[in-house]
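Per reviewer request, we include the raw input and output of the structure prediction for the construct analysed in the revised manuscript.
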Amino acid sequence: MTPLTSQGEATSPVVLYVCADRAARSAGTATQSAQTEGRAFAEERGLTIAEVVTDTYGEPDPVQRSGWRRVRQLARAGDVGAVLVRWPTAIAPESARELRHREAAWLQDHGVRVRYTWAPLSSKGAEAG
């Protein structure tokens, strides 16, 4: 049985995935905000971030991004129990919603949850599915 925190969260490590800035050379406010928010989310819940993985925003298919492929690698290896992301469009934009659902299902099949860290979503306990 997986140990739980005082808030009932699994204690297995998580990966913080950030796909925010539009150009790698302009890593700035959006990336910093997503990382700060993700770290606070994890800390409040007693979760340990095993790795922070980043991608440049723009490619709609997550498996075409090197960072997302790293997330899948961690999930496949059983190294993480959840992926923290700021909001659903970090995985795939609204125009490619089916890709987001595909990835959430793939992660779930590997025993990994997707958790949203943006306050309006995280306060509702929102998860991808």
